């Protein structure tokens, strides 16, 4: 099956904060780093994206934003933890969003950067209670993602 390119894919990227039409009487606004991180801090969960055996993998996790880092809790026996702990500062992506399909509005933020386990016992004790869910068990690992690349969009009435 051949997919025709979307004509809007060839338009130049707008300056941060500038809106562009979506073709559905709405607009897409590129977010600056500060606004993207502010929105990310409001969300409770997102998806960590990493490579496993040279293939992309995605896992949903809870997160918090502290000291300009995304902090997540992953299972010690999970594939995510295997990847993060196997190499020093492996690069991952993290995505979170808040999209309203009925109002056709919302936002999405993607952060890319190195991830590493947090080893400071005081930080672990501070972060773990904020990240716990009903599925968590002993042996979870608190991981920090450094936001090297931050991008985001706000959708206004028409995606």
From TrEMBL:
Entry coiled-coil feature ranges: none
InterPro entries noted in UniProt: Pyridox_Oxase-rel (IPR024747), Split_barrel_FMN-bd (IPR012349)
Disordered as annotated region, ranges: 1-27
A Pfam family annotated for this UniProt entry: Pyridox_ox_2
Gene3D superfamilies noted in UniProt: Electron Transport, Fmn-binding Protein, Chain A
This protein's name: Pyridoxamine 5'-phosphate oxidase
Origin species: Nocardia macrotermitis
């Amino acid at each position: 099956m051949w997919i025709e390119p979307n004509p809007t894919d060839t338009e130049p990227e707008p300056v941060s904060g500038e809106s562009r039409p979506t073709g559905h009487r709405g607009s897409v606004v590129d977010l600056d780093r500060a606004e993207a991180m502010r929105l990310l801090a409001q969300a409770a969960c997102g998806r960590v994206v990493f490579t496993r055996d040279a293939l992309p993998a995605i896992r949903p996790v809870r997160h918090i934003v502290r000291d300009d880092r995304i902090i997540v809790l992953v299972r010690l026996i999970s594939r995510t933890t295997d990847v993060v702990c196997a190499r020093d500062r492996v690069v991952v992506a993290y995505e979170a969003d808040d999209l309203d399909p009925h109002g056709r509005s919302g936002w999405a933020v993607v952060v890319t950067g190195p991830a590493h386990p947090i080893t400071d016992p005081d930080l672990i004790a501070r972060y773990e209670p904020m990240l716990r869910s009903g599925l968590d068990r002993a042996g979870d690992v608190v991981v920090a993602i450094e936001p090297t690349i931050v991008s985001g969009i706000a959708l206004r009435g028409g995606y």
